[in-house]
Amino acid sequence: MKQKITLLAITCYVLAFTGLYAQRKRSNKQIEKLKTEVAAIVENNKKQSQVMVDKIFSFSELGFQEVESSKYLTGILSENGFEIEKSISGIPTAWFATWSNGEGPTIALGSDVDCIPKASQYPGVAYHKPIVEGAPGHGEGHNSGIPMNISSALAVKKIMERENIGGTLLVWPGIAEELVAAKAWYVRDGRFDDIDMCIFTHVGNNLGVSYGPTRGTGLISVEYSFDGEAAHSAGSPWRGKSALDAAELMNIAWNYKREHLHPLKRSHSIFTDAGDQPNVVPSKAAIWFYFRDIKYEGIMEMYAMANDMAKGAALMTGTTMTSKVLGTAWPRYYNKVIAETMYLNIKEVGLPEWSDADQQLAKAVQTEVNSEKTEGLPVKLDELGLPVLEPISGGSDDIGDISWKVPTVTLRYPSNIPGLQGHHWSNAIAMATPIAHKGVVAGAKVEAMTIIDFLLKPDLMQGAWDYFNNEQQKETKYQPMISESDMPPIYLNKDKQDQFRSELEKYYYDETKYDTYLEQLGVEYPTLKN
């Protein structure tokens, strides 16, 4: 009897997974025709894409402060029939936008929206020229990702409605990615429990996708705070217990430890509180660390060592110590089946046709920042990215947490200039120009075509989960680095954004008066050094 029940359960599962698609099976020729059509819809809507890209660029909002960006983007999605859920995981600027056409897979489309401190920059100008001196700016290019996802989602939605294709589209933002401080909370709070696959998108300088373990690290972001006793620094310093001494001692101890860290580990820190004024022994001080490694175990090992050093620093100074996790990111691992399917669409779409003006700007910026790359924008597609066999250290992205929850890839699209240093004003130069606009359209076509593939070919979705369960998780199982009591640090960046918001508001893009943001700013494209 038990065997019969088991067989019945398996049969029901298979029927539930494949039944809908069996009823609406389409030939490969029909599917390819729909993919061609969805790409054409994206192309026809490129004006809307351009406006969205330029609008988010003009808001220039740091992590957790993406107020105008979130209001604008959710407004567009709401107008197009998406249901909006706000304040995801207790983050005021986080939201999920969902549209469903009945039974079928749920496909999540994510990208980041926050910008970089002190990266304000006129677009299309091939040298440093801030819009607002010292203000934030899109020196990574996160202004382009959600507009790209919306462009593809609206095109796919049109096809799904007309062809009665079942499924659900979910558009979501990576809030405060530069602080790696949202996606792990989404996962912890179950926001991806019922998702079938995730396509994440990130600005790059070519059309590309990879699978398996990728270059870069995971990390844990931790702030250590010390409490001491204030005293007059000249009158009675012996009565003080310096919290700053404790923070500095921890910093010194960690710097000595660097000699003994494996080369694949990386760490960085800043003081977030260093006292008030020299004549007062600091009663409070804090230091903020990122601890990076290529593996979860290595990250947690560094974290444990740092905790011991913080305790030791407190003991040495007679102070007390507390710590707070401000963000985490697992090392990324991408899905082979999704990546291979997407790469076929990348080859079909190809790179944009760059104008002479596009190439002039790119080469001038490369020269301005002394880049090793001087050939301008790419004219040849990257190959499909294969699993990294020899680990390479580098940056992190909290999409890693989601990649260990559901089958995931990151689509990189060509909206920026090769050879720039990143997190820098030069990376903002292309991000409200035809370079960014063309790259977003190309990426949206690839994404939309890939969504159609997975909606209409159930064997692809099953293959993606087979790879996820049997290959990706063969040796590694996801463990969250945050606890149930850890809260996202939504207070971060408020003071920085408040300092500049009123001045930045003067430069918000008004698409009702100007065709492009370049036109509003009076920028001749491209503007080069004399």
Automatic annotation (TrEMBL):
SUPFAM superfamilies: Bacterial exopeptidase dimerisation domain (SSF55031), Zn-dependent exopeptidases (SSF53187). GO terms for molecular function: dipeptidase activity; para-aminobenzoyl-glutamate hydrolase activity. One of its GO terms (biological process) is folic acid catabolic process. Gene3D superfamilies: 3.30.70.360, Zn peptidases. GO terms for cellular component: cytoplasm. This is Aminobenzoyl-glutamate utilization protein B. It comes from Maribacter ulvicola.
